[in-house]
Design a protein that fits this description.
The chain is of the alpha+beta class and 330 residues long.
């Protein structure tokens, strides 16, 4: 009986020990991925801020600028690209809408971002664009990979349409989460004018014909949960200028927009709550279950060997019974 139990425990030990690396290295890359139907919105604010008055072409202080970022997954496009890419693909249509203190549009830039659902590496396919212009991304955007490392990453900047390193600076605590802090500085760079201008009747082509150019610089900061790769907070110290041309004769320049852009507090709170719930699922596949199964396999193996050892012990023979004395006849 002990021999049979020992063999069963040995089989279970082998099963759970083999299941441990399978969960981490086989199941995790296939199960931990961004859903193609994801929808998300985010509100950021710069308060106070500087904004150009297109009527006078002078910069003025305003109490607040609001930036609404929406992100919507295109499931049909994901399915179509997956058939040729041979991997799980996510297609995000995003929109960054900047509104002035009066609620009127300041700028509006749409993007189509196509990437690998697990690694967040860009997938180059038809439709990859920023503000209607075709781009070829290198590096990440919006989200870091699962199990983010303490190292620099290449991050795509939608304004310049180029990629540059975003630097790991330190590990810190944010709202009870241990996060990695990343930072990127984009130096003054000439960038395209948005296709949709805030003044009716004025087009970017008309402004460019007058010789006026748009320049941009930013310091980008992210606090990233290393388990899910999701930023729980993001800020930018952002500045844009219009320079030269007939709008600003004599080589002049004017601040088009400047401010310290921060996520609104209620969106920070909701983002942290969402990330905390999602990181538990990732940890189950990468840590809790693999290590738990490995420990269980070792315990079952030890118990199996113990039973096997006991089954091999020689049984002690019972002591011989003493012979009864024969009774002599009377």
């Amino acid at each position: 009986m002990r021999r049979t139990a020992s063999l069963i425990l040995l089989a279970l030990a082998v099963f759970f020990t083999a299941l441990s690396p399978l969960l981490r290295w086989y199941a995790f890359p296939r199960l931990a991925k961004i859903p193609p139907s994801q929808y998300q919105d985010m509100v950021l604010e710069a308060a106070p801020a500087t904004l150009v008055d297109y009527g006078t072409m002078k910069a003025k202080k305003v109490p607040k600028i609001t930036i609404v970022q929406t992100l919507k997954g295109d499931v049909a496009a994901s399915d179509r690209i997956e058939r040729t890419a041979g991997r799980d693909v996510v297609v995000w249509d995003t929109l960054s809408y900047v509104a002035g203190p009066d609620g009127k549009m300041v700028s509006e830039i749409p993007e189509r971002y196509i990437f690998d659902a697990h690694s967040q590496e860009p997938v180059h396919a038809t439709g990859e664009s920023v503000d209607g212009n075709r781009v070829r991304r290198e590096g990440i955007e919006y989200k870091w990979p699962f199990l983010t490392e303490k190292r620099d990453y290449t991050y795509f900047d939608a304004q310049t349409r180029t990629s540059a390193p975003i630097h790991y600076k330190r590990t810190t605590t944010f709202h009870g989460l241990e996060v990695y802090y990343f930072e990127q500085t984009i130096p003054w760079t000439k960038v395209p004018l948005p296709r949709k201008m805030p003044v009716k009747g004025i087009t970017p082509e008309a402004v460019e014909k007058m010789g006026t150019t748009r320049w941009y610089t930013t310091k980008r900061m992210f606090w990233v949960d290393p388990v899910t790769g999701a930023p729980v907070n993001g800020q930018e110290i952002h500045k844009e200028e219009l320079r030269g041309g007939q709008l600003l004769p004599g080589g002049g320049k004017v601040t088009a927009f400047a401010g310290h852009v921060k996520m609104r507090d209620d969106y920070v709170t909701s983002t942290v709550a969402l990330v905390k719930s999602q990181r538990t699922l990732v940890l189950l596949l990468t840590s809790y279950l693999p290590w738990g199964f490995l420990t269980l396999g070792a315990a079952l193996l030890a118990l199996s060997l113990l039973l096997e050892a006991r089954s091999r012990r020689p049984r002690t023979a019972p002591p011989p019974q003493s012979a009864r004395p024969e009774l002599s006849p009377a």
